[in-house]
Structure formats: C-alpha cells, structure tokens
C-alpha cells in the first residue's frame, strides 16, 4: 500500500488544495431530465470522447499530484460501453495500492441492478443516485422517460450489494417541493441518506428557471418546523452541508449554490468526457487536457494542471432571475453531474 505525499500538490491561487476530481465518462444518458438537458439534445460523436486509456492517464496524473477522491459521472456513466473495464483498471491501479481514498460514481440508477454487485467487488463503497420523486407520473415528466421501478430496483440492488446509497433530490418549486418530507422519511426508513440540491442555471431549458427555483433556506426552515435538525461535521469531499434528523436518525445534506455558496472551501475540479477541465462548475474557464496529453504526454499534462490552478476562480456567479440567460451556456450533462 502506498500513501506518499505528492511531489507537487495541486494548490490554487487562493490556497485551496484540489483533492477531488469528478470525471464525466460520457455526455450520453438514457434519461432527459428537464433541468439537466434540453428537449432535443445532440450528443457528441464517439470520436471526440476520451478513450479509457486517456481517462486513466489523466486520472493517474491527478493522483500523483494529490487527488485522493475520484467520482465518475456523465451523462449517465453506466451507459458507456464496457464501463466496468475502466472501473476495474482504476480499482486495480489506484484503490488497491492505496493511492485513492475513494472511487465512486453518481448515477440515475437505471443500470444499477446490473452492475451493483461488481461495483462492490471492485471497492466502490457508496454511490449517489439522482431521484427527484417517488411518484411515477412526475418521474416520467421530469426525466421525459419514466422507468421509476427500474431505478428503485437499482437502488435496492446497490444496498443489497453492501453499497451505501445517497439520494440526490433536486428541489423544484411547484413540482416536487411537497414530496421532500415523504422522500426524507422513506429514504431514512430504508437506510439511505438524502441530499437536497438547488437547481443550477446551466444551459437553456424549456422553462424559466425563476418559476422553478426553490431556495433550500426556505426548505430547511420548513423542515425545522417538523423535525429537530442538528448540524453535524460530516464531510464527503463535496459541497454538501449535513444535518441529523433526530426523529429518523438519518442525515440530510443541503447543496446550496445560490442561497449559500460553498466556494471558499472548494477542493474539486471537473473533467468532461472530451478532456476539458473546468475549474468551476459555474464559470467558463477551462484547460484542454486532451490536447495536453496528446501533444505533450505526462509533462504536457503536468504543465496543463499547473495552468489550471492559476485559472481556478474564487467562486461562481450563479443568479436566477426571471427571463435571465443561464449563468453558463453548457448543460449540466456536458460538464458532468
């Protein structure tokens, strides 16, 4: 087992250490969630997407510079062909050697029933599953696809395989805000954690986000009228702030990019499936790691990572106002969830 200090840690201009890398392995998804994608998404040709070998090379460069946690995202990561082969390689190279503290993924759950057992065997210890409603009709409306029973089967399969499951619920005004309490009670009764997420102004969608934005400050105040919420020091490497619900014994997380941003402690960067490294979800600055790797190999990658740390901004500028343009033009599925 190895756990050596990195030769040159990734530290940005504000003194923040980057130890968490989110990697989108595909922009494709078998759902079309309304807040994530446009009605008629055009996906990238496969020739533009990083190969597994390139993804491994980029992750290896990050690990050598001090990244301790890698999350695979999409799109939907489990729809990429032979994705388990990539996870096997990352597990063998980095988890088994102690070079990573955690390898995990965020998924919509549709393919979990097929893969949960193997994921557990490869050292995946927990997964995040996007689930915005337990109502079949609403689920179909939000995802434009449906298949809620398939997702629930995947969630239970993950639990049965020994994976810890955290449910991510985007809070949407006038859509699922009345379901937050039932979702919380169901999740905790089944042994799942729940994290609520404010909708983010990424990409043009078919509605005005001002009509659907729900501040989690409001949600938290409502929950406090019904439950005893106790702040806890739990941290998972991401932006969520956690509280314990005393009546259920479970935890609830709040990701609040608008009502209370979390930029001061940002320790993460995002790699798209085409090799573009975004240092902030809410800004457009990026570094082309695919070109750096193909043109300069490992030295090129290291130089690009140094440049990325200089460019990493202090924070995002998310604002949702009526008829306002999105904060950034790219959809969430492009950057990676």
Structural class: alpha/beta
Largest sheet: 12 strands, mixed
Overall mean confidence score, pLDDT: 87
Shape: globular
What do we call the CATH topology? TIM Barrel
What integer value in Å does the Rg equal?
Answer: 19 Å
CATH class: Alpha Beta
Put simply, the count of helices is 10
* Quaternary structure annotation: single chain
Q: How are the strands of the biggest sheet laid out side by side?
A: 7-8-9-6-5-4-3-2-1-10-11-12
CATH superfamily: Aldolase class I
Supply the CATH architecture.
Alpha-Beta Barrel
Low-confidence stretches: 203-207, 318-328
Count of β-strands: 12
Task: Report strand %.
Answer: 15-25%
The residue fraction in helices comes out at 25-40%
- Report how far the terminal alpha carbons are from each other: 31 Å
Work out the count of structural domains.
1
- What pattern of helices and strands is seen along the backbone? EHEHEHEHHEHEHHEEEEEEHH
Characterise the protein shown here.
With 337 residues, the protein is of the alpha/beta class. The protein has one domain (20-335): Alpha-Beta Barrel (TIM Barrel), CATH 3.20.20. The protein has helices at 52-64, 83-95, 112-121, 136-143, 148-160, 180-189, 209-212, 216-226, 289-311, 332-335; strands at residues 20-24, 69-73, 102-107, 126-130, 164-171, 193-198, 229-231, 241-245, 251-255, 268-271, 276-278, 286-288. A twelve-stranded mixed β-sheet has the order 7-8-9-6-5-4-3-2-1-10-11-12. A hairpin with a 4-residue loop joins strand 10 (268-271) and strand 11. It is globular and about 55 Å long. The two termini are 31 Å apart. Residues 203-207 and 318-328 have low confidence and may be disordered. It is an enzyme of class 4 (lyase). Belongs to the radical SAM superfamily. MoaA family. Catalyzes the cyclization of GTP to (8S)-3',8-cyclo-7,8-dihydroguanosine 5'-triphosphate.
